[in-house]
Amino acid sequence: MRLTEEQEELRSIVRSLLTRHQGDSAWGPLTEQVGAAAPTVPEAYGGMGGGARDVHVLMEELGRSLSPLPFLGSAVLTVGALLASGDREACGRLLPGLAEGTSVGALAWAEQGSWDPAAVRAGATAHPGGRWLLTGTKDHVLDWPGVDVLLVAARTAAGVSLFEVTPDAAGVRREPVVAMDSTRGLARWVLDAAEGRLLGADGDGGRCLAHVRDLACTALAAEQVGAAGHALELTVAYARDRVQFGRPIGSFQAVKHRLADAYVLVESARSAALGAAFAADEDPGALPRAAAVAKSVCSEAFSAVAGEMIQLHGGIGITWEHDAHRYFKRAHGTGELFGPPAHHRARLAAGLGLTAH
């Protein structure tokens, strides 16, 4: 599995932009120069018309720098949900702004720590005139100041459905959440009889969310690989420079073994993440399994590599000034996002018809 020359060129440009523009300031240059706000938006709606492999490249580079940008929440989750809904009117109205980066979207989906569509308990009640009123609380929503497009999963008499809700409408309240990983914003959205517009078919939200979950896990796996790979690079560089007992610590056999094991974890995770991206583009039927594998493998690899980064840096690795603790916290946060590894292994086992004894 190889990326194209164009995708490798995209990687080079994105890395250069992220080097020159730190933190929030990178969103404008990325969206204006490489169309990074929504690579999978069809060209008819002003997007790049790309696929999961383009997302993979972008997410891997964003992961390297622990970027706080809203790419995952807006360009993957929100765009993915809109496209999956099949609602042409909503796509025509919302996707061009998302593709340009002039608007940012959020998908309010999880409840009580679960991203399983079956766990949705927020309710939507139909009212005369085609109005829907939504009530419920949504947790772990990927946050960004000034969200313009808010999509909410809620349960109707027909099942789980998707709704468009105006973020600052009556009955809608956003509550920022203080997370251990300060490099990724999270929020809780509380809806109290908030008015919403149905997206797509009533009761079709479960299918949409299941697909979005696979796209999200695939994208997040790429981010984890990028972050783990850079964490390893930083640790190898430190092992070359840090001298103890008159020699670099990287020259000690025990340290070499640990770095070699970390390298194997990173490369194995990279294969799993790429496998999921290729499945999304070329074999959608295989995506649920590939995404479950990628999320499980990449979560555990990143956690292990981030742990080694802390230990091999020694005391400096737990200081606020060093980046090691940021990689460790991002590893913990991404490991739980969209479900922990054990959840995805269980999902994989169920898909293969295996049961625990």
Q: Overview of this structure, please?
A:
By secondary structure, the protein is an alpha+beta fold. It is 51% helix and 17% strand. Strands 1, 2, 3, 4, 5, 6 and 7 form a 7-stranded mixed beta sheet that branches. Strands 8-9 form a two-stranded antiparallel ribbon. Helix 4 packs antiparallel against helix 5 and helix 7 runs antiparallel to helix 8. The longest helix is centred in the middle third of the chain and has 37 residues.
Give the secondary structure arrangement, pairings included:
Elements: H1 5-20, H2 27-34, H3 52-64, H4 71-85, H5 88-100, E1 105-108, E2 123-127, E3 131-142, E4 149-156, E5 159-165, E6 172-177, E7 186-199, H6 205-241, E8 243-244, E9 247-248, H7 253-282, H8 287-313, H9 324-336, H10 341-351
Parallel strand pairs: 1-4
Antiparallel strand pairs: 2-3, 3-7, 4-5, 5-7, 6-7, 8-9
Helix pairs in contact: 1-3, 3-6, 3-7, 4-5, 4-6, 6-7, 6-8, 6-9, 7-8, 8-9, 8-10
